[in-house]
Amino acid sequence: NLEAEAAPGAESHAAGAPLDQLRDAQQRRTRMTSRLLKASEEAVRDDRLGFVMLHLPIPHPPGQAILGASSEAEPDYFNNLELADTTLGMVRTAMEEEGTWDSSTVIVIADHGLRDFWNALPVWSTDEEQFRQSLDPLHVPFMVKMPHQDGASHFDVPISSTAVYELSVQAMNGRITSSEEALRWFEKNAGDHPPVCLSRSE
Questions:
Q1: How many Cα atoms occupy the beta-carbon half-sphere of 28 within 13 Å?
Q2: pLDDT (tens digit, 9 = 90+) per residue, 2-19?
Q3: What is the distance between the alpha carbons of residues 76 and 40, in angstroms, rounded to a whole number?
Q4: What are the two backbone dihedrals, phi and then psi, of residue 123, each rounded to the nearest 5 degrees?
Q5: What Rg value do the Cα atoms of the chain yield, rounded?
Q6: What is the pTM of this model?
Q7: Contact status, residue 77 vs residue 131, Cβ threshold 8 Å
Q8: Per-residue burial over 172-186, b = 16 or more CB atoms within 10 Å of its CB, e = otherwise
Q9: Hey, is 171 helix, strand or coil?
Q10: pLDDT tens digit string along 121-174?
Q11: Residue 54 CB neighbour total at 10 angstroms
């Protein structure tokens, strides 16, 4: 129900949308994210739930205010990256307080990268456009924390985000229980999940 409120704002992201319409979408998205974060913290604290998926609409133009920030800077894609990091930290803190962080598998992924039509938004800045042009459109942040993981590993072979489903199933069934096993799974299955870049029409 909370995610459904994002739909009206989605229309405001179209190229050529009036600036006041974008500002209104910005305010709605900020309010919605605050409620989603509260619901997310409640979900990860609920010991009756064995699987929780959180879909938070950040970072995303036209941006939204940083929760609890004192800065009066205009919300944009860059400080929304800070907001995404802050949000993940709040979720982690809630899990640590419940004693579930260390024993849980946590997957963090974006549903898409920087989109090539965002530069048509009137709130899209020159700095944001230069940043967008510097990135591979297939690049999507992807992090996996396995239970009791100590240290980090890096997997640099391109892979489709569709692999997340199979990885999640393997983890829930107890077939992948460590970061080493997850890394071996990616190395073995990367060829079955090649990255795909869909155009706006697709």
A1: 19
A2: 343 443 344 344 444 566
A3: 23
A4: -95, 0
A5: 18
A6: 0.74
A7: yes
A8: eeeebeebeebbebb
A9: helix
A10: 766 778 877 877 787 766 777 889 999 998 888 877 777 777 888 888 999 999
A11: 15
